[in-house]
Design a protein that fits this description.
This protein is α+β, with helices and mostly antiparallel strands and 415 residues long. It has seven helices and 22 strands.
């Protein structure tokens, strides 16, 4: 059944609701494909039990919270699940990414979605390679958090979501076999967490959002939401389409017309750049438990995408830069050697030859010089001072380069 956006607009007007509808890539989908754009599957005992939570004094809660602008942005970019019932994977992974940013004080830049660390986790690894299995048959957020609790999740560039599908076409049918890549040295690159939280009441959810971070939540989808453009969504017109999981990144009591602020997995061209507001009490959203997590731990190798001189970014021992395709890394080894190598088999391409020299960090200085220090003493340097605001990056061809105003001033191939 097609979605008549004109009828939805008229119904919004007739009922006096405060949201806008539009034709978009979601309303253009046929019904079969559209039903693959959700995939939350609740267990028999899934309904929320508000009495299970400790009582929360509502008067102590802030009237609003938004982790996109809470002394910085702690919400990563919106992703696209395609025609695969993986919304639980995307929403729970979004919670995980935000908690890494929050707990390790790594706000995401509003300009380029970069925290200078790749807080971009692999939904494919979490969804297809855990005990869920390599399929698009849906899941439940509690099961996601249980399954990935100890195994952790690696970065997106080590197993991109599209790579799980032949030809990168995220439109699985019963004839398509999803593949689960084996990530080399997985234990060295997996982010983990220690605590899983279940929230059953509205005030407990607000308290968690205000004091801890985002939550994975489920809502009943009605066909009008596919046409959402902006405003506070309230179910207005359309039939039930299935259960969907999203990431709640905040809330706003809005003087009595309160709403949850949600991050979806239908791409940035849907809604408000991939986000939407939904009124309290809508679509049975509070009728199911919400799930969160905390106690995130960084992997032994912390992968960043570049070091920026103007911010005096540094690599501590065991930390590394990685190319955007994940094939190359520049790691500051615990023996004091700075080594460029292939990620898969650790083939060495370049080294600073500073093994066993006393040093504790490598700093990209504001003057453009990449320097290895022990205390205040230089142990090694790229000798590129005089290039303020330079930055170091690892290219996808395996070369490490320091750029100043887009001009290379140092590289591993020339040193």
């Amino acid at each position: 059944m097609s979605i008549d956006v004109h009828e939805i607009k008229q119904a919004i007007k007739d009922k006096g609701h405060h949201w806008e509808a539009e034709e978009n890539h979601m309303t253009a989908l046929d019904e079969t494909t559209r039903k693959k754009m959700h995939g939350a599957i609740p267990p028999a005992d899934a309904k929320a039990d508000p009495t299970a939570d400790e009582a929360v004094d509502a008067t102590t809660l802030p009237s609003s919270i938004d982790w996109r602008k809470n002394n910085g942005n702690y919400v990563t970019y919106v992703k696209y699940q395609g025609a695969c019932g993986s919304c639980v994977g995307f929403s729970a992974t979004a919670v995980f990414e935000s908690m890494i940013a929050i707990e390790h004080e790594l706000p995401v830049s509003q300009l380029d979605n970069s925290s200078h660390m790749l807080i971009d986790l692999s939904v494919a690894d979490a969804f297809f390679c855990s005990n869920h299995g390599a399929n698009c048959n849906g899941w439940w957020p509690k099961d996601y958090f249980s399954a990935n609790h100890t195994r952790g999740v690696v970065q997106e560039n080590l197993f991109p979501f599209a790579d799980a599908f032949p030809g990168g076409n995220i439109k699985p049918t019963h004839e398509v076999k999803i593949t689960c890549d084996s990530v080399p040295h997985r234990a060295e690159s997996a982010f983990t967490y220690t605590n899983v939280h279940t929230v059953n009441s509205i005030n407990a959810a607000k308290a968690h959002l205000a004091k801890v971070g985002p939550l994975a939540a489920n809502l009943k989808l009605y066909t009008d939401i596919f046409s959402y453009k902006s405003g506070i969504y309230k179910h207005t017109k359309g039939q039930y389409d299935g259960l969907h999981c999203v990431c709640i990144v905040g809330y706003n009591d809005n003087n009595g017309d309160g709403y949850w602020i949600c991050k979806n997995s239908w791409g940035s061209k849907w809604g408000m750049q991939g986000f939407f507001n939904i009124g309290y009490g809508q679509c049975d959203m509070e009728g199911y438990p919400m799930f969160g997590m905390s106690g995130t731990t960084l992997p032994p190798v912390v992968y960043r995408n570049h070091l920026v001189g103007s911010e005096n970014h540094a690599l501590q021992k065991g930390e590394a830069l990685v190319s955007n395709n994940g094939h190359y890394q520049l790691i500051y080894q615990k023996d004091g050697n700075l080594v460029l190598s292939k990620t898969a088999d650790k083939t060495q391409l370049w080294a600073s030859k500073t093994t066993d020299k006393a040093s504790d960090k490598v700093v990209m200085q504001a003057d453009g010089n990449l320097v290895m220090y022990e205390g205040a003493t230089q142990v090694w340097a790229s000798n590129t001072a005089g290039h303020p605001n330079a930055y170091l990056t690892i290219q996808m061809d395996g070369e490490a380069i320091i750029y100043h105003e887009e001009t290379p001033v140092w590289s591993t191939k020339q040193s």
